[in-house]
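Internal ticket #5521
Category: modeling
Description: The requester needs a full-assembly model to guide mutagenesis choices. All entity lines are attached below as received. Residue total reported by intake: 316.
Assigned to: D.W.
Attached entities:
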Amino acid sequence: MFETLENSAMAIWVGESLWGYPIMLSLHVVGLAVVVGIFVMRDLRLLGFFQGISFESLNSLRNLGWSGFVLNAISGVFLFSSQATVFIESTPFLSKISMIFLAAICAAIIQNKLRDEAVQWDESGRAVGSVRMLARLSILLWMGAIISGRLIAYL
Amino acid sequence: MESFVQAVEGSALNQWVIGSAWTWPIMETLHFIGLSLLLGALLIIDLRMAGFFRRINIVATHKLLPWVFAGFGINLITGFLFVMGDPARYTANVGFRWKMVLLLVAGANALWFWFRINPLVKSWEPHGDTPLEAKTIAIVSLAVWFGVLLLGRLIPYVGTG
């Protein structure tokens, strides 16, 4: 299956054209900045930083954060395809994907809580303990994803 | 430039950067973390200043600024160490040179913000529209920083011509 993907027209364009790989890498770093940047800033707010920015207003950043996620899912599939058989056996790659998967679940739970409870948190001045715990976990997972992503090139 | 390269190559700092197999990947990882902090905080500040996300209190967005500076600081240090580690490659690289030019533009734009806009923000309507001058600075900032990001990622792929 991964061999078939690696021999697809998409994979060959990414792997062998002059600009395929660098274009996809560039999109991947833009997406990284958006998804990690926005979600981590949201997490920091939940942990008590940036007081004055209401919890309720964090709801408006949701689509921006996910747009970075989608950009990286797409550019990631292109990058993966070019060396599918190598990546699928790379421990740092598998650890990166697992952490992103868990971070996305965290983001989904956090945004549901924000939608339903943000107004209450604004009144009490802080997010509930379980959400603060998820915010810490989310930051660790995104940092872990960046670390393992970089290690793909080295291990 | 040649004398700079010669002075750096063989220096203690140069040897430290390239001396261990792990220094480079650790610095790269920190450079990515730094850019996420810098761009994440900046996106919120600039998009709000450009007039988007009006539910966010613009007067409070200045609290994100320390994270912009922290991300920039991490990347200034790691970036400086990259150049110390491989001065010949960076000084000759077109992508790196343009990235430095864009960083100067970003710096000038930040000064414009600091002296002309920042003193006024406190008096703005927290959820209101912003003046055209502020919008211009915000859009220039985002365009330049995403340019920095793209050029940085292209350094390994563009020539030295």
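Resolution: model delivered.
Comment from assignee: Chain A has a mean pLDDT of 96.
Ticket closed.
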